[in-house]
Design a protein that fits this description.
With about 425 residues, this protein is α/β, with parallel strands linked by helices. It has helices spanning about 10-20, 45-50, 70-80, 100-110, 135-140, 165-170, 190-205, 225-235, 250, 265-280, 285-295, 300-320, 345-355, 390-414, and strands at about 30-35, 90-95, 125-130, 145-155, 160, 175-180, 205-210, 240-245, 260-265, 335, 355, 360, 385.
């Protein structure tokens, strides 16, 4: 077996399952899960219609590069959303959701065989935010690289303080994962950070993979800044060493379709297409037809965003009465500090007493900066992630139970 498999850490939901294995939820309450970030709003009818009328596509193998019509649809969406012009033939590539693409991209980009001028092997480093989406870590490890965790800073609205990453780390970096809007924090990376990262990429030669799957769920009038948009505004129209990843799962409530696309540096995408051709990751023709319908329509996205805005406006103030929590920039998570600071105990006892599932923040982060370094602080410790993906009434019921739970704990402590 591949020995690198042994370096993988348990996925957050496997850890949650183990945590809850000895817990008996209170049967007086119906179960409510705020744990998994799986969209639960209704799938748009236009997507269902497109799927049902494209069954003839099942009779042919799909091309890995995707239908020209789909690539054009994705490019048109980027133009409308970000004001960025792309060559659909060379700068856009359909993928089976951002998760598989993020993993496969690392396998394409990382070269673990690099050597220095002395002929000795050079350590390949992948920098990622902390807290983070665990696919970044797994992708790095299975590509033969070492993850470096750049912690989010509460003083910077939970954006990463990139100045804290040492020059010797950047010198070894081959790939940088950024996530904006962030999971789990909901923070949107500002232009100043993009400018800083582009300069570092130019200096050290690493590739930037920009995970933007939450870009269409936001709570302010201004839509979140995207990586391609930032590059274009800075005159980087060739998108050198930049690839953006986006998905229909959250935007259009179709997580089961596994549909998204990547866009950016044409030379990198050429190699990524080569990898994907051998990897067997072509998108079903039916899914491509439904994806075109979704990317071409904005009305359902506006309606979806309104549902989230209504939900967060109702739930956030309620929870803020007893917890340190605020409306995020974007995304569908609340990133809350728990009274007492024990996020794991909070999640366990909340399930036992009120049958509500939340995810401990420490499960989404790592101690220190590198694998094996247990000295550093876990920036997710003392917080929980709540995915407000259900209907408003269910999320409100969960929030009311959490408020009662916190007040009960505070009363017992006093």
């Amino acid at each position: 077996m591949n020995p690198l498999l042994a370096s993988l850490q348990p996925y957050p939901f496997e850890r949650l399952k183990q945590l809850f294995s000895t817990v008996t939820p209170n049967p007086a309450y119906a179960p409510i899960s705020l744990g998994i970030g799986e969209p639960r709003h209704a799938t748009p009818q236009l997507v269902l219609d497109a799927l049902s009328t494209a069954t003839a596509q099942l009779a042919a193998y799909p091309a890995t590069a995707g239908l020209p019509a789909l690539r054009a649809s994705c490019a048109h969406w980027v133009q409308r959303r970000y004001g960025v012009a792309l060559d659909a033939a060379t700068q856009v590539l359909p993928v089976n959701g951002s998760r598989e693409a993020l993993f496969a991209f690392a396998q394409t980009v990382i070269d673990p065989s690099k050597t220095g001028t002395d002929g000795q092997p050079l350590e390949a480093v992948v920098v990622c935010p902390n807290p983070f989406y665990q696919i970044y870590e797994g992708a790095a490890l299975l590509a033969g690289a070492t993850p470096y965790y750049a912690p989010s800073d509460p003083a910077l609205n939970f954006n990463v303080d990139w100045d804290q990453v040492p020059a010797e780390v950047w010198a070894k970096t081959q790939l940088l994962f950024v996530c904006s809007p962030g999971n789990p924090t909901g923070a949107v990376m500002p232009m100043a950070d993009w400018e800083k990262l582009f300069a570092l990429s130019d200096k050290y030669g690493f590739v930037i993979a920009s995970d933007e799957c939450y870009s269409e769920i936001y709570f302010r009038e201004e839509a979140p800044l995207g990586g391609l948009e930032a590059a274009a505004k800075l005159g980087r129209t060739d998108f050198k060493n930049l690839v953006a990843f986006t998905s229909l799962s959250k935007r259009s409530n179709v997580p089961g379709m596994r549909s998204g696309f990547v866009a950016g540096d044409a030379q990198i995408l050429k190699q990524f297409l080569l990898y994907r051709t051998y990897h067997g990751s072509a998108m079903s023709g039916m899914v491509q037809a439904a994806s075109i319908a979704a990317w071409d329509d904005e009305a359902h996205v506006v309606a979806n965003r309104a549902l989230y805005r209504e939900k967060f406006a109702a739930v956030t103030p309620l929870l803020a009465e007893v917890m340190d929590v605020r409306l995020p920039d974007a995304g569908f998570y609340l990133w809350a500090a728990v009274p007492g600071g024990d996020d794991v105990g909070f999640a366990r006892d909340l399930l036992a007493q009120y049958n509500v599932t939340v995810l401990p923040g420490s499960y989404l982060a790592r101690n220190g900066h590198q694998i094996g370094d247990a000295k550093g602080f876990n920036p997710g410790a003392g917080r929980i992630r709540m995915a407000l993906v259900a209907e408003t009434a269910e999320c409100l019921e969960a929030a009311q139970r959490i408020v009662a739970f916190v007040k009960q704990r505070q009363s017992s402590a006093s």
